[in-house]
Every structure is written in C-alpha cells, then in structure tokens.
TrEMBL record:
PROSITE patterns: ABC_TM1F (PS50929), ABC_TRANSPORTER_1 (PS00211), ABC_TRANSPORTER_2 (PS50893). InterPro entries: AAA+_ATPase, ABC1_TM_dom, ABC1_TM_sf, ABC_transporter-like_ATP-bd, ABC_transporter-like_CS, P-loop_NTPase, Type_1_exporter. This is ATP-binding cassette subfamily B protein/ATP-binding cassette subfamily C protein. GO terms for molecular function: ABC-type oligopeptide transporter activity; ATP binding; ATP hydrolysis activity. GO terms for cellular component: plasma membrane. It is found in: Cell membrane. It comes from Keratinibaculum paraultunense.
Length: 596
C-alpha cells in the first residue's frame, strides 16, 4: 500500500512536470500491446485461408495487412522512440529543476541539519548516479504495457476456453502474490542498508569534492579514506549478496510457475486440435493463434514480474528525492504585510532558541531594542550565539519562544520577499558566484556600469584592482568555466561581498565578521568610512576585532546565549570587571588600541 502511495505521488509529480511525456508513454504502451495482438490474430486468418479456400484476393489482402500493419508499427515505433528519448531527457531536466528549486526554497533549517543534508545528497545521487528516474519510468510504462498485453491475450484465450483463462488468472495471482511478498522484503532490505549506504556515500563523496583535498593531502588522509570506502563497500556487497540470492530464488519459483502455466496452455490448445473432448475442434490457424497467445502470455508475465521488481526497487532509490521535495518551504510560514522602506525599530522580546535536534538553548530569553539608524555591535566569545541571533532576525530559523518585531510587527507577519528585500547581510561564509564582478555586486544579469557601482568600488577600496583587469567589472569571477576568469584573494572577495550588500541599498545592513579577511590597512579604511558606507541605515555589526565597536552607538554583549550588557563603548569601558572591558583591553594590548 505504502509503495502504491509512493508511486501515485511520483506519478503526480511527473504528470505536473511533463504531461505530454506521460501521455506519449501511455500511447507507446498501447501501440506495443496492439502490435503483439495484431501479430497473433492476423496470421490465424491467413493460415486458415491458405489451408481452406485459398482465395488469391483474400490471401493478398491478409498478407498485405500483416506486412503493412508491421511497417506502420515499425514507423510509429521509430518516431515514438525519438520523441520518447527527448521527452525523457526533458522530464529528467525538469525533475532536476524541481530539486534545485526545492533546495533554494526549502526552509533553511533543513540545510543545516545533518539528516536533511544527507537526504539531499542521497536524492541527488539517486537522480544522477542510479538513474532512478529513467529506470522507474521505464519500469512503470513497461508494467502498463505488460498489463494491457496480458488483458488482450486473456480476451483472445477467453474465446477458446474460460476455464483456461481462470487457470491463467490464478497463476498470475500466485505470481503477483510471490512478488508482492518479495516487494515487502525488498522495502525492508533497502531501509536496513541506509546507514551503511550513508556512510559509504559520505566517504566516497569526500573523494569527489575539491574543498577537502587540501586537508586530505596535507594530512595524508587518502589511505584512511580509501580504507573506509573499501570497508563499507564490502559491507554493502555482503548485504546485496543475500538480497540477490533471495531474488534469484524468487525468480526461479516465478519461472517454474510460468513454465507450468505455458505447458498447460500449449497442451490444452494442442488437445483442442486433435480431440473434441474439451470442446469443439479448432482449425490450424486458430491453433497458431492460441499457441502464439499462450507463448506471448508466458513471456509477458515473466517480463511483468521483472518490471514490477524494477519499479519497486527504483521507488526505494527515489525515496530520498520524494521525502526531500515534500519538505515545507520558507515562504509557507509567511504573512502578507508589506515591509516599509525604513527601519524604525527592531525588538527582540524574550527570544529563546535551540537548533532542531538539540536540547541546548543557544539563545535564552534574549530581549533588546534597536532604534532606526543606530549602529550596533554584537560582541561575545566564540559560540556565544551572535550569528544565531542574526539568523533569527533573517528568518532563517524561527524562535522557539518569544518574538522579534520590526517596526512594531512580528517579522513573520511580513511577506517573505518584501521582508528579505529590506535586509542586506554579509555572512561569515558569504558566497560569490561564477558571474562577472559587476553581476556579483548588482545581483542583476542586465546590470549597467553606473555611478553607484563605481562609487561603491572606490569606497570599498577595489578601484585599483578593477581598473587593472582587462575586462574591468565584466571580468568573470573564478576559472570554473573560463580560463580568463579572475581569482581574487580572500580580502578582495570580501570587499566585493561588502559592495554587494551596500549595492542592495537595504535600510538594514548586517555584517557578520565582514573584515576578517582584510589586511589591517584595508580594515582600518573600511572602519574609517564605515559610517559613510552604511550612510543613514540601521547597521548590526559582528566582529571579533574590538576596534569596530568604537564606531558603533551601542554594544550588545552576549555570553552563553544571554544578553549581559547593552551600552555604549564609553559606558562599558567604565565597568572594569566586565567581559567587554576584558576583551577590549586584551586586544588593545596586541593592537595598541587606545583604551578610552
Ligand atoms: N546549524 C547548527 N546546528 C546546531 N548547532 C549549531 C548550528 N549552528 C551553530 N550551532 C551552535 O550554536 C552555538 C552558537 O553558534 P553561533 O554561530 O551563533 O556562535 P557565534 O557567537 O556566532 O560564534 P563565532 O564567534 O565563533 O562565530 C554554538 O555552540 C554552535 O555550536
């Protein structure tokens, strides 16, 4: 039942993705069945005519009908083949798009949860490596074709004897029962190998990724990884050995039943030619037709079994895909208020939060207010909860309790796009993409080199660099797709990320460790111009470089997920026993900052 439900939802996704392809598949299945049936029925009349009246005109008509119908079937088959290949490629492409869209829109919390990250990997693996989509479609259409063929053959055989048909139906029932009990075992088997498969996929995946390669080489971990892959591969092979042994036995039993079924059918048809004990004698033409029907019946039921097994196996492979695409999307939690262009206030009211699957509160009963236009620095030790606080403000996670208000409204009352449009964030792990420098800053493919972008380039200290590039702002970032692409240093990339955030011109700008990769001169320059850079915007700033706090109106001090202080730099420096004083003075010694 569970399998049928899964198949139904897979088919409904496929139907939505490409209805024309599904229709084409069904038409193809019908045509294939029709070809088999026509080639069983027409020869009967030709043979009877040959052995009976021998009317030349009739013989010509029947002979031509057989040849012509086969030519037509062949022609249609060739046309369909091409259309089906194109349709299949298109459907696969659409399914990949569905997956990519899902990853881009799924509630963000899933993308930081190891279970769902693994699910995503397995879903992508099933589509790309196991050809699950292609095989399941083949499996389902062939199953439909086999069922239509079997029904047509049963109708032909019914004209010979209903007892024979009942017998054949019973054998089919027996075969399907054998396969359905195997399908249950198959489901349990694939569930049971998930843990090994995940481990195998993880270690194998490390070998394919480029990012881990530096560490793998420097710490000589290649051998260790290969060993793990070999171990898990062996475990998997052992499990599959058991599975295929059992499958072999089932297929053997299935074939025995099929041979028995065919022998009885042939025997019965033969008896009807030589004796009238079981019914009236039949002609040689009818004999050929019924024998052909019996042969095809036996072959088709064998194929039906194989196709059902293939379909269920592929359904198992597609499980992660089906589970992943049914996850809720971020926009589903959205209100419909339009966010204003100006930030008047931000309030955290008794906000507590723990990451999904964790018992530990990362933020506990956090309350503070930010006035519009204020520059706030959030300071705290590693793991204090600073970035998490920003993630909540950006609606990447929802608080477990408490509320966050912007301009007096709960942030979830705002329409998702409208709210996100008013926030520009540079995260610690920001990403630039293989677009041109200009496109990376403007996030717009059709951008024009305008004054705004040129001013920003100058303000973040990138003018000289951009001027030195032969293609300036049109230089492609990275060499992934073009040898002429440019590779920027960590600091230069960070400046582009800062320019991108500023270009968005959002009233709230959040910078999480925005200068960590900058050299001291560039950092000092950014700080110096910081207020000019962010202009009248409300700005939240997280940095371990304490000197940045001096430029801010207030400093929010977080310790172990709680607010321990919220005041100006000058006032906090009065509290000589506070964490802020300790952090500032310790760094000041190293950086020779003024302890004011
Ligand atoms: N996706 C996650 N799932 C589970 N726990 C997480 C996740 N992200 C962060 N944490 C945990 O939450 C705590 C706070 O992390 P957060 O990144 O907010 O700290 P931070 O103050 O920004 O630290 P840092 O200064 O090192 O950047 C840490 O203990 C961290 O291990």
């Amino acid at each position: 039942m569970k399998q049928l439900k899964k198949m139904k939802s897979f088919l409904s996704i496929s139907w939505k993705a490409s209805p024309s392809y599904i229709i084409l598949l069904l038409v193809n299945a019908l045509l294939e069945s029709a070809r088999i049936v026509v080639n069983i029925i027409l020869p009967k009349y030709l043979i009877d005519e040959l052995l009976g009246n021998k009317d030349p005109q009739m013989l010509l008509i029947l002979g031509s009908a057989i040849v012509l119908s086969n030519v037509i079937f062949k022609l249609i088959e060739n046309i369909m083949k091409k259309q089906l290949t194109i349709g299949r490629i298109k459907l696969e492409e659409k399914m990949s798009q569905i997956m990519a869209n899902k990853i881009m829109n799924v509630d963000f919390s899933y993308l930081e949860n190891p279970y769902y990250l693994d699910l995503k990997e397995r879903a992508v693996f099933a589509i790309n490596n196991q050809l699950a989509l292609e095989n399941i479609i083949v499996g389902i259409t062939n199953t439909i074709r086999d069922l239509i063929t079997i029904i047509s053959l049963l109708i032909i055989l019914f004209s010979l004897s209903w007892v024979l048909v009942v017998f054949l139906l019973l054998t089919i029932g027996l075969n399907l029962w054998i396969y359905s009990s195997f399908a249950n075992y198959q489901q349990e088997f694939f569930q049971s190998i998930i843990p090994i498969n995940r481990k195998y996929g993880y270690y194998m995946g490390l070998g394919f990724q480029d990012k881990p390669q530096k560490d793998i080489r420097l710490y000589n971990m290649g051998q260790m990884l290969t060993q793990r892959v070999i171990e898990y591969n062996k475990d998997l092979m052992d499990e599959f050995q058991v599975f295929y042994n059992r499958l072999g036995k089932i297929e053997g039993l299935y074939n025995v039943i099929n041979v028995l079924q065919a022998s009885i059918a042939y025997g019965y048809v033969g008896l009807r030619v030589i004796s009238d004990k079981f019914g009236p004698n039949i002609s040689i033409g009818s004999f050929t037709m019924y024998v052909n029907a019996a042969i095809n019946f036996s072959q088709t039921t064998t194929k039906l079994g194989e196709n059902i097994t293939l379909t269920f196996q592929m359904l198992q492979y597609l499980d992660p895909f089906m589970e992943f695409i049914s996850l809720p999307e971020t926009k589903e939690y959205s209100g419909n208020l339009k966010m204003e262009d100006e930030i008047k206030s931000i309030s955290f009211k008794n906000v507590s939060f723990k990451y999904p699957g964790s018992d530990k509160y990362v933020l506990e009963d956090i309350s503070f207010d930010i006035k519009g236009g204020e520059k706030i620095s959030i300071v705290g030790l590693n793991g204090a909860g600073k970035t998490t606080l920003i993630k909540l403000l950006c609606r990447l996670y929802e608080p477990d309790s408490g509320e966050i208000f912007v301009n007096g409204h709960n942030i979830y009352d705002y329409e998702y796009e409208s709210y996100m449009g008013k926030i520009a964030v540079i995260f610690q792990d920001y990403k630039l993409f293989a677009f041109t420098v200009g496109e990376n800053i403007s996030c717009n493919e059709g951008y024009k080199e305008d004054k705004k972008i040129m001013d920003l380039i100058e303000e973040v200290g990138l003018k000289e660099k951009i001027d030195s590039l032969p293609n300036g702002l049109d230089s492609l970032m990275g060499k992934a797709y073009d040898d002429k692409g440019i590779e920027l240093s960590g600091g230069e990339s960070q400046k582009i990320a800062i320019a991108r955030a500023l270009y968005k011109d959002a009233p709230l700008i959040i910078l999480d460790e925005p200068t960590s990769a900058l050299d001291p001169l560039a950092e000092a320059e950014i700080y110096e111009h910081f207020n000019t850079l962010v202009k009248g915007k409300t700005a939240i700033y997280i940095s371990h470089r304490m000197s940045s706090s001096v430029f801010c109106d207030r400093i929010l001090l977080i310790e172990d997920g709680k607010v321990v202080d919220y005041d100006s730099h000058a006032n906090l420096m009065e509290k000589k026993d506070s964490l802020y004083y300790k952090l500032f003075t310790t760094q000041a010694k190293n950086y020779q900052l003024d302890i004011a």
